[in-house]
Design a protein that fits this description.
- The chain has helices spanning 6-24, 55-60, 111-119, 128-131, 156-160, 169-172, 244-252, 267-271, 301-308, 313-319, 342-353, 357-371, 387-401, 415-422, 445-452, 470-480, 485-502, and strands at 35-40, 69-71, 77-79, 82-87, 92-97, 134-141, 144-149, 187-193, 197-202, 213-214, 221-222, 235-240, 258-260, 276-290, 326-327, 377-383, 406-412, 432-439, 505-518, 522-523, 539-540, 545-546, 548-549.
- It is of the alpha+beta class and 552 residues long.
- The strands form seven sheets. Strands 13, 14, 15, 16, 17, 18 and 19 form a seven-stranded mixed sheet that branches. A four-stranded mixed sheet has the order 1-12-9-8, covered by helices on one side. Strands 4-5-7-6 form a four-stranded antiparallel sheet, covered by helices on one side.
- Helix 9 packs antiparallel against helix 12 (357-371).
Length: 552
């Protein structure tokens, strides 16, 4: 048996001998340092929510910043920095804010911070997060803010859960978030060594004091379960490990406690390992192949449908993901069962995207003839280094090369280069296809607008194909102003039909989120459906969730 707790040995390894001397006095007994060592599959690119177009950055600062409300593991909106949201008319919401909250820089949280947070999104890459609905706000007092919407906005409550609140000083130049995130969350930023590690430490003065929380209507309570007043884990260290196989080896070797997104083909063996616990949850995201719509032959719809029909989704799921996940033929995840269905997805597969090599060849012949392009067309699939993504891209490459219409290669890039490349303003004019993943949220608009609305073309946001369809834009706009769920579903279904028919991307797979952690080192961790909220259950009193270390 080692003489030191595993968490302490890891801390020594990472902070070095000088720091270790200071920690040594805390070893053993009630003062022992508790640490969770998890992984990130890419480096953190920004600490600023208004700049974060990558999921890694969002999940990295998710325990540091807090929104006004949060969404629990079942999709219910829960109070966080707001204690009540009252719709006073179609355009006006009164927000009542929690008192006694401080930011990690010591400043008090007030309505001025909320107003400044909203308004600093203007002109940023994430502008649509707020300015899709925000018109103005009026501070009634330090803890009451009236928000005026530009027009009725159906997902207002859910949307607030995706807006991390920052200090007012970040808006007026008094605080530089490029040096580190500053929020009100249960953990504060400590260290970031690029491409190596990112570390958070337990905040001293988080507002939660234990017990029940009031619900957002003010007429009930939210059960916080047995969540303690302080997060049990003192230090959360994220090792940046790009290769999934390396993450897995680190987990099995005891160098880390928790591996995010382990290789799917290893999950079966992990489930059989008594030292490892595996948890999973249907995910709110999908993989896709994005076409550069301005470049022939991808400018031709028949060619794009032919590629979509060449994708061996079932084979990808079996051989790459070990049978985990389900084929994707439209953007909205089955996680949102109010807005999609198995029958709708089957219809989209039959009409446009189902694997059909014979039909694909017919479409290629028509498309290449129309464009007067002599096959094979030399191109590439651009991807990052995530092993599963590379493997499914290789299967697509092999399928396309077998048609004699294409000569496809794979181009891999490290994460930041990859993101910069696919989100550049001219990605639609490149000669390569792009293998991408997308993490949506709890509202259907999050699966559609950023990717398929004409105004969201890169570099403004994430419409890398520069897809533009006036009818899709109209449907998405109307769906946002419709509070009736059935009517919204109809709008989103119509929009999806048009997008799938136009095929600006080929949908590949709806994912299942998987976590694997050491049974003797982690207790209570739960898999959150959305990738950006991966580490939610480390401490989330509003969801009745927390994680302890050392097997309890």
């Amino acid at each position: 048996m080692p003489s030191l707790p595993t968490s302490r040995r890891r801390l020594l390894r990472w902070v070095g001998a000088a720091s270790a001397a200071g920690v040594a006095g805390c070893a053993g007994g009630s003062d022992a340092v508790s640490e969770l060592v998890a992984t990130l599959g890419a480096d953190v690119s920004t600490y600023d929510p208004t700049l974060a177009n990558d999921t890694t950055s969002q999940k990295a600062f998710g325990l540091v910043y807090e929104p006004l409300v949060s969404v629990d593991f079942e999709g219910s909106v829960r109070p966080t920095l707001a204690t009540a949201l009252d719709r006073r008319d179609d355009l006006t919401w009164r927000l009542s804010l929690r008192e006694g909250v401080t930011f990690h820089d010591g400043s008090d949280f007030t309505a001025a911070d909320v107003q400044a947070t909203f308004e600093r999104y203007e002109g940023t890459p994430r502008e649509s997060d707020v300015y899709l609905w925000y018109d103005d706000s009026t501070i009634r007092d330090d803890y009451t803010l009236d928000v005026t919407l530009s027009e009725p906005y159906a997902p207002f409550r859910l949307t607030l859960g995706g807006i991390p609140i920052v200090p007012e000083a970040a808006a007026n130049g008094g605080l530089d978030l490029s040096t580190g995130p500053v929020g009100t969350g249960p953990y504060a930023f400590d260290t970031h060594e690029p491409d190596r590690l990112y570390r958070l430490v337990r905040a001293d003065d988080h507002w939660y004091e234990g017990g029940e929380l009031g619900d957002l209507s003010g007429n009930g309570t939210v059960d916080a379960g047995e969540v303690p007043a302080d997060p049990p884990i003192e230090t959360v260290t994220f090792r940046i490990i790009v290769e999934q196989s390396s993450q897995l080896a680190a987990l099995q070797g005891g160098d880390i406690d928790l591996a995010n997104n382990p290789p799917a083909d290893a999950v079966s063996d992990l489930r059989d390992d008594d030292t490892i616990t595996v948890t999973d949850h249907l995910a709110g995201g999908f993989d896709m192949l994005v076409f550069p719509l301005a470049t022939p032959p991808f400018s031709n719809r028949d060619v794009r449908e032919g590629i979509a029909r060449s994708i061996p989704r079932e084979e990808i799921i079996e051989s790459v993901y070990g049978g985990i996940g389900q084929p994707a033929y439209a953007p909205v995840s089955p996680l949102l069962d109010d807005y999609t269905s198995e029958s709708f997805l089957a219809e989209m597969a039959e009409e446009y995207m189902g694997h059909d090599p014979e039909r694909a060849r017919e479409l290629f012949e028509t498309g290449f003839a129309t464009l007067d392009i002599e096959p094979p067309y030399e191109t590439a699939i651009v991807t990052n280094q995530t092993a599963d993504r590379v493997r499914w891209a290789q299967l697509v490459r092999d399928e396309l090369n077998a048609t004699d219409f294409f000569d496809v290669s794979i181009e891999q890039f490290e994460w930041n280069t990859y993101i910069e490349r696919v989100l550049s303003g001219d990605s639609h004019q490149s000669e390569e296809m792009m293998a991408l993943g997308w993490s949506g949220g709890w509202d259907p608009d999050t699966y559609l607008r950023n990717l398929f609305y004409s105004g969201q073309a890169t570099p403004s946001c994430c419409n890398a194909a520069h897809y533009a369809n006036d009818e899709v834009d109209r449907l998405l706009d109307e769906a946002l102003t419709t509070y009736d769920t059935a009517e919204r579903r109809d709008h989103y279904e119509q929009a999806q039909r048009r997008i799938v028919a136009d095929a600006p991307v080929a949908f590949v797979r709806f994912g299942t989120r998987i976590e694997a952690f050491r049974s003797d080192a982690v207790e209570g961790f739960r898999t959150y459906p959305l990738d950006s909220g991966e580490f939610t259950s480390i401490y989330a009193p509003w969801a009745g969730a927390y994680t302890a270390s050392g097997g309890g």
